[in-house]
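Late entry, written up from scratch paper. The run itself happened at the end of the previous shift, but nothing got recorded in the book at the time, so transcribing now.
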Amino acid sequence: MEYLRDNIRDLFAPRTSADIDVEEVTRKTSQLEVDLDTIVENHTALRTAYREECAEHAALTGEYEKACEHIRRLRTERDMAIEHSHKLVSERDQLQQDCHEAERSRQKAAEEAEKARTQLTSYKSELSVATKIGNQISDGEVCSRMDRLFYSIQDFAISATRSVDLDISKLNKGAAIWLKDHIPGVEKIPKAHKPYIITALVAKSLLMRFQTDKYFGLSADTEITAARRLARAFTGVETAGTKDWLEPTRKLLGSLDEQALQESDQALVDSMALEMHSILDPVLQGTWKPTAEKSLRKIVQSAFELFRMLHSSKALFQIEFTPAASPRGKLAFDAAMMQALASEEDHGALRNQLLQVSVFPGVFKYGDEMGNNLDELTVICRARVILQKESHLSSSSR
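Output as recorded:
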């Protein structure tokens, strides 16, 4: 611009006629026109750029205002979320408090129920003793005999496994299938629980012989076989009336041929001993000893005596194992029907813990010593089980 002013000043400055050069003036005029056109173009370009910048500035200002508005909304939502979060925390704390109170109430109710159950069992036991008739066995006597039977089998199992590792893979097919439901994951149970496998297998074999026809042993004698066939006919439809004939018939058979009856009883014991030898000898890796079989035979004889007492009772007795697993998974502890071994916790605190080993069956009685109230259940002995450590029932197994 300074250059342009100097040229204009020179162009219009007073001159003498001698100084005027028409061609020079024409040249400078042309140059000035070119420069002016350039300035106009630059000015136009600058104005266009300025307008674009203004438009971009306006757009950015609009976005900025929108962003500010969005931030204000987010801040409001954040404040609302914080307030809602505080409410949720308060509700959670209240729910936790309610849950703790409910759990304390449940535990108290469970303790009261257990006390009531114990008192009821005690009352029934006392009533059973008070009303005992003839050869009817009392609840307390049944429980005492089952306890002795359990500890005898357990001692046998501990002795049998003391110096040998069990080879579970050598179990026969039938025993392996049974263990799948009663000791799931048998290969992984702790070493300290290995004797319970033997205990369970012996108890299972005994339980298979808790049948009315076994009341007369296992003989081919004609009269005994006829009595066994008649007893088998009543299987599943037993009542106090259908059992009245068992003991008199056994006494009659004994009076006719006592040796035949003794041989029949011995045959039943022999079948049990032979079965346990075939099952346990491979598992014990060939360490089965004659002393072990002798000990087992005493246990079996004691068990069969108890079984005959239960069969001749007017009440209906059932001896049942509690499965430790079902197709849906492991089952949970039930304090009313089960007794947890190797656990120091109160049974009320073991609710929903999973079963690991079903060790020994329970005894359940329907009716009383008079043969009445056969729909009334009394738990004489709870089934003995081992619980899986630090485990609880999943929702899928409930």
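Residues 393-398 have pLDDT under 50 and may be disordered.
(Scratch paper discarded after transcription.)
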